[in-house]
Amino acid sequence: MKFGVVVFPGSNCDQDAVDALELMGQPVVKLWHKDHDLQGCDMIILPGGFSYGDYLRTGAVARFSPIMNEVIAHANAGGYLMGICNGFQILAEAHLVPGVLLQNNSQQYVCKNIYLKPQSKEALLTANLEDRAYRIPIAHGDGRYFADADTLARLNDNGQVLFRYCDEAGNITDSANPNGSLDNIAGVCNANRNVFGMMPHPERAADPSLGNTDGRLILEQLLTMVLA
Prior knowledge:
This protein is an alpha/beta fold. The chain is built from five helices and eleven strands; from the N terminus they run βαββαβαββββαβββα.
């Protein structure tokens, strides 16, 4: 399985994503935002960072980068695509996943380890994960997930909620919600379940030298998609 990590001006987690995937023995290439060639990649990663300085809304400018034409076509053709943090914001701006990411309810940038719990048994990213809390870092100022009531109902009915914020014991509570996200939502997928977005950073918890490999367990689910 060949991965492509898109690099926008202001991306700062692209190398983290590359390192995590290479640690898993996967071939990875970086794709520059002005390119028009996905180089035969099976799965595209939109990494975290501050694309275009987060001007306007987070992800709003990056959504119109030249390479996004190919990324959107790839996703619409059933190709796999994952956005992490700023990448999730870009997916939302491109309407590749439902909902929006708003400013944290604290109005502050939050950078810390949190816990999240897999929710969907239909989406390949989470279907085979253990039903437990995973410790994953977050680093964002605009991570508050929001969708209208009809959209939220569809997400729940269709198994499109990937993760919810929880405490260490796996309890989904208001106090475990780090940014005020609706229904503690930390990640969602599209209706076809081939586009995945999440605010926490699994690539930052994938190397044993960091003392936490919960993120690698999530990223390893990507490898099952090529066999699906």
